[in-house]
Amino acid sequence: MELDKMDENDWRYHGEGNKSLVVSHVQLSKVLRLLKYPAEDSENPPQTAEQAFRQIQNIVDFSSNVMSRLLGDKFIHSGEVVKLPLEFVRQLSIKVQPQRPAWRCDKVMDIYSGCALCLPNLTAPSLLQHSHTPPLCVEIKPKCGFLPSAKHISRDIKSKVCRFCMHQHYKVSSGRWKRRSLYCPLDLFSGSRARMHFAVRQLIEEPQNNFKIFKGGQCIYSSKEGGSGDEDSSDLNSLLYHLRPYFLYANNRIHAHVSGKAVLSDFIQVLVNALLNSGGGGGGGVTTDRREEGRTYCEASVFNKERSRHGSQGLPHDSVLSRILNTQMLDSLNIEGLYPLYRRVEQHLRDFPKERNALQVDGPYNEAFLEHLQKCPAEDDGSLDFAVSKVHQYRVAMTAKDCSIMVALVPGADDEHDEDQDVLCPQRRLRDFLSSRPPTFSYSVSILDLDPKPLDSIPLQLSLDHKIVSCYTRTLAAAVDRDDRTLLFRPV
Ligand SMILES: Nc1ncnc2c1ncn2[C@@H]1O[C@H](COP(=O)(O)OP(=O)(O)O)[C@@H](O)[C@H]1O
Ligand SMILES: [Mg+2]
Ligand SMILES: [Zn+2]
Fold first, then answer.
1. Same domain for 209 and 317?
2. Looking at residue 286, what DSSP letter applies?
3. Does one domain contain both 68 and 132?
4. What is the dihedral of CA 468, 470, 474, 477, to 10 degrees?
């Protein structure tokens, strides 16, 4: 890729989040992640090219010096900042516009700075491309996997029902989504195969912006409302059509008899295996931090609680989920306990604005930043130092609550001497047919979207927390009035 000879025809729309728009190269395993600005600012950009460059460099530094140390560098691709020709960026912006989902168009792609983040394309991993069969990639945005400790919260419900499940009610009542998702992050992070299977099933059922599937680098399944604009993108039948060839011949099956249910179940099983094994043979221990009684189960989860009692083994040490959960748990005080410490930092910055740099609240995100948050005193001694350290921890935890996991799956490649990796090749069909287990896949697991969250997002988090909890308690009260507790809590 030569930066001075960029051609928009080599790139296509790949996806976007709230902060960035991503395009992928048609041949190379590369993506460009460009900043987005509110559409109102489209005439005059809110920051200079130098500031945009600094912002993206901060993202790279935060990912490589802070998040990768906490999450494990084997999962992280921090990428590099690139400077692109402005003409290329303008043409690209025009080219991708028709493919963007309408509800994301309140923001526009940054066409002023020419800066972007260049990353490997995790949905078309080049290492796995020797196989004839396109890799399947699953993107999961797991969200927060634990309940806050009762010490710091003012509303009891927060220690019973997880943030995601409460937020679902708020999102539906505010019109953000039409239907509630029954996915509960505590099920996914449980380490129990049955609960994890159930959680993934719910993500498939109602993907919202927490679940996507790619095949050969193209999105084949995502939320209909928030998705690619493709009519079929969240149609289960079309998903099964794509998945079937990967799962046809395992388990002594005869072609005609493979039900959609069995295909889906095999697929979920493969995905759950990848999530549990992603540590790569490490230790086999179990995370214990969260197993404090009552903090591993959300009362709003539809998963049958009795069943979950049996298989609650916790996550394997060093698995991707365990690394993410431990980083999320750096939020040890909850937003309610943290807010007074944020105010302490805020007040200090108001009195001594020049200290903003020294306290590294907007970076640089280097070794010293990481050290500051790791060397936090156990008790609040009333110092600024304690407050800054807790605020740093909280911001890192916010990033970990908002990241995505990308699991790339390639059929059969775990057999080292396997030359017939194509799922459709006759030898492989016969072998899989004769075996009585789900087909084997090799996988690679990555974590993406590891941007630092700005300091000013903390007061917004507090007010959102109030809104979500009030909305939930109101819904709960209304349901109790109607004697309709099943809406909120399933009978145990
Ligand atoms: N390195 C990558 N490889 C493949 N797809 C990516 C990569 N980075 C981002 N994407 C896709 O683009 C989407 C938006 O990127 P993301 O980093 O989550 O942006 P935002 O910060 O706006 O949420 C992701 O959900 C994912 O589908
Ligand atoms: Mg994102
Ligand atoms: Zn929940």
1. yes
2. B
3. no
4. 110
């600012």: which residue's tokens? 41
pLDDT in tens, 247-256: 876 555 555 5
223 C-beta closer than 6 A to ligand 1? no
Could you tell me if 131 and 100 lie in one domain?
A: no
The Cβ of residue 416 has, within 10 Å, a number of other Cβ atoms equal to 5
Give the range among 7-11, 56-60, 102-106, 462-466 with minimum mean pLDDT: 102-106
Last residue of a domain, one of 106, 121, 136: 121
Q: Does residue 472 share a domain with residue 387?
A: yes
Residue 81 · residue 57 · CB < 8 Å: yes
Same domain, 131 and 116: no
Angle (CA) 6-7-11 rounded to 5° is 105
Scanning 189-333, the segments in alpha helix (DSSP H) are 193-205, 236-247, 260-277, 305-310, 320-328
C-beta 22 within 6 A of ligand 1: yes
Rg (the chain; Cα; Å): 23
CATH number of the domain encompassing residue 24:
3.30.200.110
Domain co-membership, 406 together with 487:
yes
Q: In one letter, which amino acid is 71?
A: L
Give the range of the structural domain holding residue 189, as residue numbers without chain letter: 122-492
Mean pLDDT for the chain overall: 87
**Is residue 54 located within the same domain as residue 138?**
no
Q: Is 299 in the pocket of ligand 1 (CB under 6 A)?
A: no
Mapped onto helix, strand or coil, the DSSP state of residue 389 is helix
Whole-angstrom Cα distance, residue 183 to residue 195? 10
Q: Provide the domain count of the chain.
A: 2
Q: What letter represents residue 234's amino acid? A: S
163: enclosing H helix or E strand? helix 163-173
Closest residue CA from atom 11 of ligand 1: 15
* Cα pseudo-dihedral 61, 64, 65, 67, rounded to 10: 110
Answer yes or no: are the C-beta atoms of 230 and 413 closer than 8 Å: no
CA of 461 to the centre of ligand 3 (A): 19
- Tell me the C-alpha distance between 250 and 429, whole Å: 8
Last residue of a domain, one of 121, 154, 189: 121
CA of 458 to the centre of ligand 2 (A): 19
pLDDT digits (tens, 9 = 90+) for 167-208: 999 999 999 899 999 999 999 999 999 999 999 999 999 999
Judge if 39 and 136 occupy the same domain.
Answer: no
| Residue 404 CB less than 6 A away from ligand 1 | yes
- Which one, of 55, 59, 78, 54, lies nearest residue 68 by Cα? 78
Quick one: average pLDDT of 349-358?
96
Could you give the CA distance from residue 216 to residue 134 in angstroms, rounded to a whole number?
Answer: 5
Place of tokens 């079937």: 244
